[in-house]
Design goal:
With 439 residues, the chain is of the alpha+beta class. Helices cover 38% and strands 33% of the residues. It folds into four domains: 91 residues, Arc Repressor Mutant, subunit A, CATH 1.10.10.10; 151 residues, Nuclear Transport Factor 2, Chain: A (Roll); 97 residues, no CATH class; 88 residues.
């Protein structure tokens, strides 16, 4: 018996010693269950359940829905349990009391029975072993196939990430010891099922250490962020080419390299906007792109976002940040978002009045007390225009975020009522009580 088999059998029999673990295996043999369902069925502390699940080891697996189920080893363990529990107790007979002739016939019959049983058992064991081996091989094959697909995906994204680092940012990777720290993939349900992959690298040499984060959404570049952990600012990042000390020129060249990699039409318009700007430019528009920036010496923040019919959609944008002439962030969610409507039929004053009317009918619960008797101040009050999604994920709709201040702090620590108003229809999107300890 191999060492791996010994470990499996050792785990199996040590797990079967405890009645709680045997019960968990019986439950999972009937259906897959969540942690909460198992906890409710066993009526034991959650820490105890966690301990037992950890001790079951490879006898159980967790599927993509977060439910526990039996592995092939777990099913074998349940079979052993059932065999032990259902084995009938056989009452022995006094063989010596039989006549001699019957003894002989009984002995021959017993020998034949044992022989046939042995042959059958050997055949059954062989078939069962083949079946078990097949199941194990299938599980291993599926596991390896999944890992290979994941590694292939990681390799593809890693290649894209390194292309951004080398060709767009122009970091000199040959001057650093590079380490891939993590590569995670997430299905962003809150964003309509966008597949988001985040890759983190460490770049280190004798003088400095930097951390790079790159994000891809639906296989499209979304974010580059640089965080210098050691050496900043005396040891800035090392580049393959000298970076301009003029922020605007640096941003123009950056978008030019990015456009060479991505080849997107909207980047051409952005480059033209930057070429027409100067460091005193605060706001400028070209076509459907609006430039907004703030530059102070080597520090700058540049927004290039979508605009139409006088309506700005700030989430659909390219964002650039420089700190001490070093590019620390480049993000691009232009392709991610769509624009649902550009109609703005509600002014900020109308939005405030709609919000006040809704707030007067609003109440909240604080420690069992329903609070509805409160006073809204006429000032201060604010209405911020910030389009965001409504019914369709990633489709932006004009929206007012109205902040109403109360005359004092009410139960639950509430001193502000925030109301969302759709700017195209005037309907209430949401309403919320806010404050230091608001529910």
């Amino acid at each position: 018996m191999s060492s791996s088999e010994e470990e499996i059998y050792s785990l199996m029999f040590s797990s079967l010693k405890h009645p709680a673990r045997r019960k968990i295996l019986r439950m999972l043999s009937e259906k897959a269950m969540t942690f909460s369902q198992i906890l409710e069925e066993l009526a034991i502390p959650s820490s105890h359940l966690t301990y037992h699940l950890e001790n079951l080891g490879d006898l159980i697996v967790k599927d993509t829905d977060g439910k526990y189920k039996l592995s092939s080893f777990g099913r074998a363990a349940v079979s052993i349990m059932k065999g032990a529990e259902e084995a009938p107790s056989v009452n022995s007979k006094r063989f010596s009391a039989l006549p001699r002739r019957w003894k002989t016939l009984y002995a021959v019959f017993l020998i034949c029975t044992v022989f046939l049983s042995t042959v059958t058992l050997v055949q059954y064991t062989s078939l069962n072993q083949l079946s078990t081996n097949y199941d194990q091989l299938k599980v291993e094959f599926d596991k390896i196939q999944t890992q290979n697909q994941q590694l292939l995906s990681w390799s593809t994204s890693a290649n894209k990430a390194m292309a951004v680092i080398r060709d767009v940012i122009q970091l000199d990777v040959s001057k650093y010891q590079t380490k891939l720290d993590s590569n995670t993939v997430e299905d962003r349900i809150d964003m309509g099922g966008v597949i988001e992959e985040v890759i983190k690298y460490s770049f280190e040499n004798a003088a400095s250490r930097i951390e790079l984060t790159l994000r891809f959404r639906n296989n499209h570049f979304s974010l580059f962020r640089l965080n210098q952990l050691e050496g900043f600012p005396n040891y800035p990042p090392l580049y393959t080419k000298t970076q301009p000390r003029n922020i605007l020129q640096a941003a123009i060249e950056l978008l030019g390299r990015y456009n060479a990699v991505m080849g997107e039409q909207y980047l051409e318009e952005m480059i033209q906007l930057l070429k027409a700007a100067n460091e005193t430019t605060v706001d400028h528009t070209l076509g459907n792109t609006r430039l907004r920036m703030s530059i102070l010496g080597g520090n700058a923040e540049i927004w290039l976002f979508y605009t139409a019919n006088g309506t700005d959609f700030a989430s659909k944008r390219v964002h650039i940040i420089y700190q001490n002439y070093i590019l620390t962030e480049l993000s691009d969610d232009w392709n991610l978002y769509k624009v649902g409507t550009t109609e703005v039929n509600v002014s900020s004053e109308q939005a405030i009045q709609i919000a006040k009317n809704a707030a007067r009918r609003y109440s909240w619960n604080a420690d069992g007390q329903q609070v509805s008797d409160f006073e809204i101040l006429d000032s201060p009050v604010s209405a911020d225009f910030y389009p965001h999604t409504r019914s369709e994920p990633l489709t932006l709709v004009p929206y007012w975020y109205v902040t109403l201040h109360l005359d004092k702090t009410y139960p639950g620590g509430v001193n502000v009522i925030a109301v969302g108003v759709w700017a195209d229809t005037g309907e209430i999107a949401n309403i919320q009580a806010l404050g230091d300890h608001a529910p």
